[in-house]
Amino acid sequence: MTEADVVIIGAGLAGLGAAVAARNAGKRAVVLEASGRAGGRAWTDYPAALGGVWFDMGAIWLHDAEHNPLVPIARAAGDKLLRSDEIRKERTFIGDRMANEAELADFAHAWPRYEAVADAVLAVEGDVSLAEVTRRLPDDPWAATIEAWEGPVICAVDADRFSALDWRRNALGGSNLVPEGGIGAFVRRRLTQGVDIRLNTPVTRVRWGGSGGQVTVETAAGSITAGACIVTVSTGVLASGALVFDPVLPARVGDAVQALPMGLAMKVALRATGPDRLDLPLHCSVDRIIERSGDPLMPFQCWPFGRDYVQGWIGGSVAWDLARQGEAAAVDFALGYLRQMFGGRVDRLFAGGASLVTRWDADPWVRGAYSYAVPGSALARDALAEPLSGGHLMFAGEACHVGFAGTVAGAWISGQSAARTALAAVGD
Ligand SMILES: Cc1cc2nc3c(=O)[nH]c(=O)nc-3n(C[C@H](O)[C@H](O)[C@H](O)COP(=O)(O)OP(=O)(O)OC[C@H]3O[C@@H](n4cnc5c(N)ncnc54)[C@H](O)[C@@H]3O)c2cc1C
Looking at the predicted structure, is the pLDDT value of residue 1 above 70? Predict the structure, then answer.
């Protein structure tokens, strides 16, 4: 294989961000991608089970749209961004009834209170688990539900395993936009142009620290030697040992990878077989208040964009358990969850209907949904992003960003930043 200024491992958002930065700087970048498609965890599919409509298997939203660097790219290209927050209706259940206005107002006030307690505990005690924050609010009836949203639902990890500092450093505000046609389709359409991507080319070994900092990466199709290398694979792949580094990486990198494991978020979509719409408006979010810390919370998006399916989202250890049990168990779990709110009509509505379960746990090139920091290790993200070999070897990806960790924006920014460092190391 040929030589390049920079070789990039992985064609997800970080790899594409790095490649676009190199291209814009007039440098030759080659992106090696193990799977048969670009985009990584930004993947729009058209599943027959859902009637062939576009469906994002991984990322869906451009979060914090006001600060998200992918939003101006989409706008400049004339792409339509759907205002998901504005069109969304919401229904929150307490047991099998809908919460009333006063309860919803109380719940809304509980969020800033929870955040303030987290900040106060972190300021005095340093990094603790998210579950520890909840324990400081023993009489707050909403704290368990807030914990479930911020832990398993949003960050794909149980609260007792999750660093509260990592949560606070990466909590996102602003609005959420959805590229019409799917985020994965947007990425392929707008972010891969003019980029040299070699699909179906898993890298097996990275030889770094050669003369002048040169790096050689090995694949079954041959080797590439470049002035610098940017590694963008997930921490799940790094921890698996599928990629061998020669010489062995310094201990601080291995420690950072161990401190940033992959959480799991699983989507379960159920297609309706009849006209019943559960008395819900189109594009309606349904969730519920849970009573105890650790109880599962599975929010549903019902009839998104007017479609004929509901899509549930479950994260953390429940998602890993369901992944081990298989897709039928995940469908049963989703049906059981809906039954608690809507009763037996759920069985009539979805009986015999098609379903879809996302399986990021089983993708050997990802091995989970996105990274979280374990309690006490929030600074591992900064450590993983530090240059090696004077910038000739860089790690990038969602795990390496602080602010937008775990998102497409974080991956993109981290890839661009790693490219700037790597290109500076390579020089003219
Ligand atoms: C279910 C789910 C929902 C999500 N929802 C959102 C959301 O709404 N909004 C949001 O912003 N983010 C969301 N995310 C997170 C977002 O998708 C990721 O943070 C982001 O896409 C990660 O990009 P990356 O480049 O860091 O990694 P990846 O996308 O994983 O890219 C790394 C690439 O490296 C490749 N690779 C692995 N091993 C090798 C090898 N040995 N050789 C060559 N290539 C290799 C992989 O195939 C992959 O393509 C979600 C993720 C999931 C799974």
Answer: no
Q: How high is the pLDDT of residue 87? A: 84
When pLDDT is averaged across residues 239-248 and rounded to a whole number, the result is 98
The pLDDT of 263-272, averaged and rounded, is 98
Domains located in the chain, CATH noted: 4-39+192-260+375-426 (3.50.50.60), 85-174+265-362 (3.90.660.10)
Ligand 1 centroid–CA 210 distance in Å is: 29
pLDDT digits (tens, 9 = 90+) for 46-66: 999 999 999 999 999 999 999
- Residues lining ligand 1, judged by CB closer than 6 Å? 9-15, 32-35, 40-42, 58-61, 63, 202-203, 232-234, 237, 242-243, 265, 267, 358, 360, 365-366, 369-370, 397-398, 406-409, 411
User: Which of 233, 313, 356, when mutated, tests ligand 1's pocket best, judged by the most ligand atoms within 8 Å of its CB?
Assistant: 233
Phi, psi at 11, each rounded to 5°: -110, 40
- With the most atoms of ligand 1 within 8 angstroms of its CB, the residue from 172, 370, 394 to mutate is 370
pLDDT of residue 2: 61
Atom of ligand 1 nearest to the CA of 411: 26
As a whole number of angstroms, the distance between CA 419 and CA 396 comes to 9
Percent of all residues in the chain with a pLDDT value above 70, rounded to a whole number: 100
How many angstroms does the Cα of residue 127 sit away from the middle of ligand 1? Answer: 27
Mean pLDDT, residues 343-364: 96
* Integer Cα distance of 380 and 374 in angstroms: 9
b vs e for 123-153, b when ≥16 Cβ sit within 10 Å of the residue's Cβ? eeeebbbbbbbbeebeebebbbbbbbbbbbb
**What distance in angstroms lies between residue 100's CA and the mean position of ligand 1's atoms?**
39
Is the model's pLDDT at 17 over the cut of 80? Answer: yes
SS3 readout for 206-221: EECCCHHHCEEEEECC
